[in-house]
């Protein structure tokens, strides 16, 4: 493998979302052609308004056309002709869409909040497009059918990295609202503990609020579950438990395919990952310890130091590469990711976690991907663990817990316009 290839891979593939980059490129054209950086704000208010209206119209037209390409892509996939999708030709890494995306409308909504088309010096950005895609997804979900299941990542999505979901967190009333509306909720987190009290420690604000609610019915309260270690440990709400949760044995929720994951393979994969992590930690002189668990192995910093982003990414890519190239890595799904200040390799991934939630609540008829929304912060293609959820559900990519709160408000407004 040439160095050039490695540089391209490292710089581009895992640190960029190809679809977002492509849309950014399309919007850059009207930005360049229509923005008027030389118009003076004070002197020419009217001229600025005309330019902004013109730019807005062109951005909106582009977003409408991209929405059309996505609809066309969905149609070809449904008809078993993925090769005919024009979008796939333009953005080869593009995945599956479970609903249409109402991109023009979503653009107008985000433009009214972020004033994208009024900017003359800063072109439509990655974050602008990420938020437009989220809005378009919410509209697609509520207009095509109903949102029956919302799954949430934990760190950075519900609370700050490494923090806990405490009682004053504004996401709590919103999650209670989802349960009130008879929707199901799953917390699908990488945090992998086999005992319920550990999750209570992290999530007590939410679990106590569900327990204390006098308006939720017992059945609605049972609408919340926690899936830990990506897809390894399931807990259901139980008001008779001190920690509000009880462990659900795997025999009650594993998907058929998961029953083939055997203990020897799991041990072999984790041994291999552990050895790759140790080698990498020694090579980079990381101030880190190695933590081996039942279904995961990770490196974490000792003495409260921070590991640099480059070291974390190098470690993820090194361990992922080592496991991918092994025989066991092709038999067993795994997820290597950068947790912000640690690196973990888990057995399974969030696509399995979300599917298990769909089956658990569906009781014989799993909830469809087009009726499921997964909200998370890690959607880059390597070293990020929410990315795999895209295989099982629609997704929203947020960048902070407060964006999750905004997104749930937006969902409510889309459901009850
Ligand atoms: P998430 O954002 O909710 O998916 O949580 C990810 C974080 O959970 C990681 O960055 C780790 O700090 C922590 N964690 C604790 N135990 C595990 C484990 O077994 N696997 C992966 N991550 C873990
Ligand atoms: Mg996260």
What labels describe this entry?
binds magnesium ion, 417 residues, seven-stranded mixed β-sheet, Rossmann fold, single chain, 14 helices, alpha/beta, binds inosinic acid, 2 domains, four-stranded antiparallel β-sheet
Explain this structure.
With 417 residues, this protein is α/β, with parallel strands linked by helices. It folds into 2 domains: 4-144, no CATH class; 146-417, HAD superfamily/HAD-like (Rossmann fold, 3-Layer(aba) Sandwich), CATH 3.40.50.1000. The chain is built from 14 helices and 11 strands. It has helices spanning 3-13, 18-34, 45-78, 86-90, 103-114, 126-144, 171-180, 196-212, 218-221, 263-283, 309-324, 327-331, 350-362, 401-415; strands spanning 149-152, 184-188, 224-228, 233-237, 245-248, 288-292, 296-301, 334-338, 343-347, 372-376, 394-397. It has a 7-stranded mixed sheet, with helices on both faces. Strand 8 and strand 9 form a beta hairpin. Helix 2 packs antiparallel against helix 3 (45-78) and helix 7 (171-180) packs across helix 8. The radius of gyration is 23 Å and the shape is globular. Inosinic acid binds next to strand 7 and strand 9. GO terms for molecular function: 5'-nucleotidase activity; ATP binding; magnesium ion binding. Belongs to the ISN1 family. This is IMP-specific 5'-nucleotidase 1.
